[in-house]
Fold this sequence. Notes:
By secondary structure, the chain is an alpha/beta fold. It has helices at residues 19-22, 42-52, 98-110, 112-130, 132-147; strands at 4-12, 25-33, 57-60, 75-77. The protein folds into 2 domains: 4-81, no CATH class; 89-126, no CATH class.
Amino acid sequence: MRHLDADVWVIHDPQPVALRSLVPLGGAAIWRCHIDCSTPNGAVREYLLPLLQTYDRTLFSMPEYVLPGLTSEQVRIVQPAIDPLARNRYNGYLVESTEDCAECMVQVLTDRMMAERIGAAAKRSVRERFLIPRLVQDHLQLYGEVAGTQASNATAA
């Protein structure tokens, strides 16, 4: 098989994890996983660990998802562009029922200062944590790290 060169290879999910061992990939390699690997079947963990140790970095969506046995130097966390599990009290409300939703809407509609405060905090939070530019910047920094270069420190507007 022909040698395949790239600055950085990103292998996504468990199914192709053996690719790094099977194909002559020239360049740094990152294994990207967005599923929970924190409590795997022991046999699966023993199978995956040697394969993952051939990667320059392993990338998970949440610290809780990291496969036990990986070194902290090898693991990086890059949160998704939108975290559906986030509960940020400063940005608004998370409700469980239509009645709770209606109550919160009335409160925001009748309290202008509260509405402005929630709106400003939500706008800041979205710009800092959830827009695609933040996700791209996180990935570029990681690619620069494994490729041996510095990624741009430009901030998303």
